[in-house]
Amino acid sequence: MTAPRRQSYSTGFKSASNRVAKRRLTTRRIMPDGSWMLVKTSFEPEIILTDQPRGQTLEFRVIASNKAGRSVVSNSVAVMI
To answer: Where are the domains of the chain?
Structure first.
């Protein structure tokens, strides 16, 4: 007995490699009470950030976005550079 196949739906657009493309918005704030600011927008799962403030604890989070809208905000990670 085999399980019925599920129909899959895509809310993004397909790139040349036939993947669903999602834009990732990376935001940052200086801990503990700074406001969130956009630091990088990317279609790739990894980014390199330069010129970040040193000697302060920074908190980063990601929001995925496509034509259907924005995702919930990711968990944040705190870093001291």
So the answer is: 22-80
Adjacent-strand bridge partners of 67: none
Separation of CA 26 from chain center: 5
Selection from 23, 51, 48, 28 nearest residue 38 by Cα: 28
CA 76 to each of CA 31, 47, 68: distance values in angstroms, whole numbers, following the listed order: 11, 15, 23
| CA distances (Å), origin 62, targets 7, 8, 54, 67, 74 | 28, 25, 21, 17, 5
- 14-25 per-position pLDDT tens digit: 444 445 558 999
**DSSP structure class, residue 31:** T
Distance CA 76, CA 81 (A): 16
CATH of domain 22-80: 2.60.40.10
Question: What pLDDT shows up at residue 19?
Answer: 52
